Amino acid sequence: MKKYLLLILALMLVLPMAAKREKKPQEVDSLGRPIKTGWNFGILPSIAYDADYGFQGGVLTNIYDYGDGKQYPEYIHSLYIEAAYTTKHHGIFRFHYDSKYLIPGYRLTLDATYLPDAMCDFYGFNGFQSLYHYTWHDWSKKPEKMVLEDYRSRVFYKYKRDLIRVAGDIEGTIYKDLKWNAGLGVLGYLIDDCDIKMLNGRNTYDPTLDHQKALNPDEQLLYSKYKEWGLVGKDEMKGGWHPYLRAGITYDTRDKRQGPNKGIYTDLFFTYSAAFNAAYGNQASAGYNHLQFNFTFRHYIPCYYDKNGINRITFAYRIGTQNNIAGRSPFYMNNYMNALFIQRVYYEGLGGGNSVRGMMAHRILANGFAFANIEFRFRIVNFDIGRQHFYIGLNPFFDMGIITQPYKLDELVELHTDGQYKDLKSSMLAAGDKYDDYFRPEDDAKIYMPHMTAGIGLKVGMNENFVLSADWAMPIDRQDNQKLANFYVKMGYLF
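Request: output the structure for the sequence above.
Response:
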């Protein structure tokens, strides 16, 4: 892991460049350093690591226009372009634009993203109610490190999911720091079972061997079982297209958007999503038209200023919730965290490096959820290299997620199963599966148990806007992740 971090840091120092030669600055920022002016950009390899997606390779660029620098560290225009792929067959192809000046008096963001994923995580519904068996998908080159009698498939908890996202959002001012927000877009999901032939590549499965790298094409994976049991219906099992309309309000007193030292950011908004099912002739699927409610509160509290007046320690926390208040959403949309402004590549929840760090991605899958992220941000050192301003920081953190609206599993079976009604246990028995192998006893208290993780992060910032983040996190409960060392190397702060 260390060699990848060192490589990324070296590239950050060597490759950034100014698109146009800056004039000698006449002003300094709050840290006493020359402000940035004009167009600035860095061309970087998109090298990252995520415990859920693997090592990432590609290329990215973030282009900023600071104009005459009067608003620094705020920018006039920001363009972000990235193309990358990971060792776990996950792709990122993205264009993002952000500006408060293109339309005077309004903030506009545009986003076009394609995220193909050959092995998307799927651990079942309702978090702790769905049992997770590490030995069922734990594969090692050394068979003595495995429980061969339990092993089923490395992709037992996977399915194929491609996500296409196109969005436009705008923000205007109601009064001072109180803003109104509106947006529209479309989310397209293309879903199927894992393509075992593609994943095997040149490896051929041999049924006579007890231990091998190749995947068994006849092994039924969890997603396929959910379809057979009736928990995933025919009208959602292949995905669909969902145009949406979003509106809400925000209150924002942060001193800056990236790594703020002080202030409050809170939002409250509603998202109405329509539904067109791509698997059945693009016919409207009115059963999945739904309305969701989101609320988020972030608070940044400066704790310690040094003798130069620079804030060195910030206490930051975020709490939020997302709930379905009308209609019914397809299962694959329930792990998408709605946002008024698209700023990151991923808005997946709950679990993983973008929501509850240290917990497996998509571990919590339910109609509604709440979450919290708490961390201290220590700014260790500030320094310059050439014309670029850098800082290094450390962030110990604690994350938590909880279900607020669980699935009622028997009702799903009754709704989706063709023909005569069967309860879940009967449906599973008919398929040759035991209820107790996949679900805890019917105890609502287990559904509402909090999922908790803890860890620490390293931040390397450049020009106050470009931030490289390396986080390590571990789960409190091993049902959330058997791995105690979960690393995430990404861009930006989590919130």
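Residues 1-26, 278-284 have pLDDT under 50 and may be disordered.
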